[in-house]
Amino acid sequence: MSASAPSSASPGPPVDLAVTLGGTRLTNPVLTAAGCVRLGRDLEQLLDLPALGAYVTPTVTLHPVTGPPGRRVVESPSGFVHATGLAGPGLSGFLATELPWLAARSVRTIVSVAAASLGEYAELARHIAAAPGVTGVEVRLGPPGAAALGLHRSDEPYHAAKVLATVRRELPSGALLLAKLAPLPGRVGEFARACADAGADGVTVADAAEALALDPTTLRPALGSGARDVPHAGLSGPALHPIALRCVWEAHAAVPTLPVVGCGGVASAADALAMIAAGATAVQVGSSVFADPTTPARVLAGLADLVSGHGATAVAGLVGYAHRPEHAPARTLATPTEGPEGVRR
Amino acid sequence: MTSGRPAPGGASAAPSSRTVHVRAEVLSRKKVGRYHHLTLVAPGVAERHRPGTFVAVSVGGPDSARLARRAFWVLRARPAGAYGGTVELLVAERGAGTRWLTTLAPGATVPLTGPLGRPFALPREAVACTLVGHSEGVAALQSLAERLKERGCTVHVVLAAADEAGLYGALEARRAARTVQVVTEDGSVGLRGRLPDLLPGLLEAQAPDVVYAAGPTAVLHAAAAAAEQRGAWSQVALTGPMPCATGHCLGCAVPVVGEDAVARSVRACVDGPVLRGDRVRWDAWGAPA
User: Fold this and answer.
1) CATH tag for B128-239 (out of 3.30.300.30, 3.40.50.80, 3.40.30.10, 3.10.290.10)
2) Is the CB of residue B257 less than 8 Å away from at least one CB of chain A?
3) What is the per-residue burial (b if ≥16 Cβ within 10 Å, else e) of B58-73?
4) B20-116: what fold?
5) pLDDT tens across B206-255, in order?
6) Is A46–B113 a contact, with Cβ atoms under 8 angstroms apart?
7) For chain B, what are the domain ranges?
8) Contacts of A64 in chain B (CB under 8 A)
C-alpha cells in the first residue's frame, strides 16, 4: 500500500475495528476462511473464535463426504497444495454437532456451502436459515475441481447469479449472503457485478487456485490415489496472496458499493491491511493457520496498530485506500463525510 | 510472509489450555548415530506432556517458505529445570526442513506447538507390556516405559532400525525394561531381519497383554497384527506427514473403524496419534508412511 499515508506522531484515539457487510455489523474484520479452521477443544484457546469478526465453517454439503484416499495435503513453496474433496459430515451432521458447539460459544458463524444443483442449494439454504446461531451463508462458486467433485458449475456470471438468487430466496431478510469466487484476475469484476445484482451482500475473493503437485519419485499426482485423472487440487497460502490481492482490487473497482472479503495467503496484519487497502471490507485467514494456529489472533492484534499508524481512526476508513488519489491523506478518510463506516463520533 | 512469532519464552495460551504455542529456544544439540538430539526450552509444554503426545515445530526461520509443521515425539520432558521446562526431541534428517532443524545453534528459536494429540492409554493393572520402536519412533516409547514400570508393569522393549546407526535408546531402555531386544535389518547388531517377520516369535516369548508400537506404518501394522493374533491389545502411535498437526488441514487422514463398527476417517494428529491397532483399517490406508 502507499507509503505516503501519514503516520500519526502520538498514539491517537482507540481504533474502531468494526465493519459492516451488507446489513451485518462485525466487531472486527478478521474472519476465518472456509475449511481451514476446524473445531477442537484442545486448540480452543489458541484460536479464540468468539473474538474474531466471524467464523466461516468448513464447506457444508448436503450429504456426508468421506474425502479421497491417500495423501491430501503437500507443502509447496510458500503454500500448500491440497485436495480434501470437501470432506465433512454433511448438512445434518453439521447441524447436529458443529453448529451447536459454535452457538454455545457465541461464535458469529457464516456457513460455507457447496452443492450439486440449484435444488440442493435451495435445500441447504432452507435448513441453514432455520437453524439458530447462523449469521449468514457463503456460497462457494469456484472451489478447485468443482467439476470433479460433482458440484454445480458456475463457469459464467450468469450461473453464479442463478445460484445466488436461489439461495437468497431461502434466507431471511437479515441474513448475510456472500459469494466466494475463484481467483480469476480479469473475470472477477464481472462475477462480482452479477453476484451483487442477484442479491449477494458481498463477494469473498478468492478461493484456492487450481493446482497440481507431482510426487518426485513416482512422477504421478502426489495427491489422492495418484491416478492419471487430474485431481481436484488447489493452491493456498502466501504464494496466492498477490493474485488474491489483484482479484480484490478488481472486484472493488468493478462494484465499489459491494463489500469484498479478501481471502488468500493472509498471514500477518500487514497482509490483511493490504487486502483492505485494495478494497476489502473484511479479510479471511485460511491456510496460514496450518503453519501457526495463532495466526487469526495475531492478525487481529496487529491490525489496530497498523491502522492508527496510517493515521486512520477506523479500519473502515482505509477500505479501498489504494484506489484513491495519492494526495488524499488517510486521516480524512475517517471523517463523518466519508460515510457511516468511518464515523467515530 | 511472517510466520508465528509468539512472545519469547512465553506461553501464548492460558495455563488451563492443554496445548500451548511458544517460541522454543535451542538449549543444546548433539549428534547420536544418525539422529540429532535436540533439547529445547519450551515453557508449558513439558508440564502437559504425556507419553504418546507430540510437538509440532515450524522450520526454516521467520521468513521461511516452508509452512508445513514437522511433528516430533517428545523423547523426554523436564517440567522444571535450571532453564525452565525443556523437551528433548530426536530429529532424523528426512528433508530440507528437518535438515534445517539440525543446523540450529544453541540460542536459536523455533515456533513450537504442543503437546498435541491423545496419549497412550495405560493399563489399570500391572500387566506385561511389549514396546516396539522402529528408528526415531523409539522416542515415543522412552517415557512410556518409565510410566509403565512405575505402575508395576513388566516391560519388554524391542528396538529396531535399518542398521546400527539408526538405533537409539538401547541403554536408556534397560533402565525400565526387563528385556531389551535389538533388531537390525542388516544384522549389524542384535537380531537380523524385519519386524513383521520377527515380531510373532518375539511376542510368543514375551507373552504381553498389551503391545505398544511407534514407527513406520508397516511396523505398526505388524505389531497390531501380531498382538491381535495373540489376543493382546495394541496401541499404535502413528507417524507420517502432519502438515498442520493441529487438526485443521485434514492432511493426515487415517481410515479406521469406530466402536460402532462404522468405517470412517480420522485425523492422526488430533484423533490420534495413538490409536488402538485393531481400529485401523490397514488395508485401506493409501497414505505413504
Assistant:
1) 3.40.50.80
2) no
3) bbbeeeeebbbbbbbb
4) Elongation Factor Tu (Ef-tu); domain 3 (2.40.30)
5) 999 999 999 999 999 999 999 999 999 999 999 888 999 999 999 999 99
6) yes
7) 20-116, 128-239
8) none
